[in-house]
Amino acid sequence: MDQQQLGLIDPGCRLAAYCVDGIGSGQRCCPQLNADPLGGASRRGAMAQEPLAAHLHFIPRALRRPQNALVRLLRRYFEHAPGWVLLTTRGRKTGLPRQVLLPCERTPECLIVISTYGWRSNWIRNIEHDANVTITAAGWVLSGYAELVEEFERKTHLVSEHPFFPPAPFAPIHAVLRTLLRPLLVMLLRRWVRPRPLVVIHPGSLLSPPPHARSGAA
Length: 218
Description:
Blueprint: H1 3-6, H2 16-22, H3 40-45, H4 58-62, H5 64-73, H6 75-80, E1 84-90, E2 97-103, E3 105-106, E4 111-114, H7 122-129, E5 132-137, E6 140-149, H8 152-161, H9 171-177, H10 182-192, E7 198-208, H11 211-217
Antiparallel strand pairs: 1-2, 1-5, 3-4, 4-7, 5-6, 6-7
Helix pairs in contact: 8-10
């Protein structure tokens, strides 16, 4: 698979750059992002400072079936829409694949997600057990390695360099927030990530390109 073939991906989605360098290499595309020095016990210590939303985690659990139905209905949209990723983890108890729809930020090197409900999110607990994941974004399906980031300075650096708005990951809203309201957005994100784990997903091997890339390569 050559770079010309991968170049068929929409350059506006900012996913193509890390696909070229990451596919099949088994190496992280963000070498400056070293492994989190905090151990599991230290992470669990953060539970004492968990966000208020962590106590509301029963809400997404109760809405799991309606959300899954919505994802199935609009799957094609979520697979290609900017600002969203379908993240597949391995169930820590069952070992079965578990998929969740999450707002995200895509960079040329990696993909960034934040756990709204802190350490209580099932997908975060699954990543603690097994960091190997699969991501579906911009029509591409890639394997990946999920790096948990708890160091506050690294979290604030990442969201300052790559700000996004998790509650409403839609292009028109981001267009305004990243330009006219960027200082305000960065300030809010720095507070948002303080009690929450941030996850950097490093892409690995290409599992399935989008349909237009497959047809173009034929």
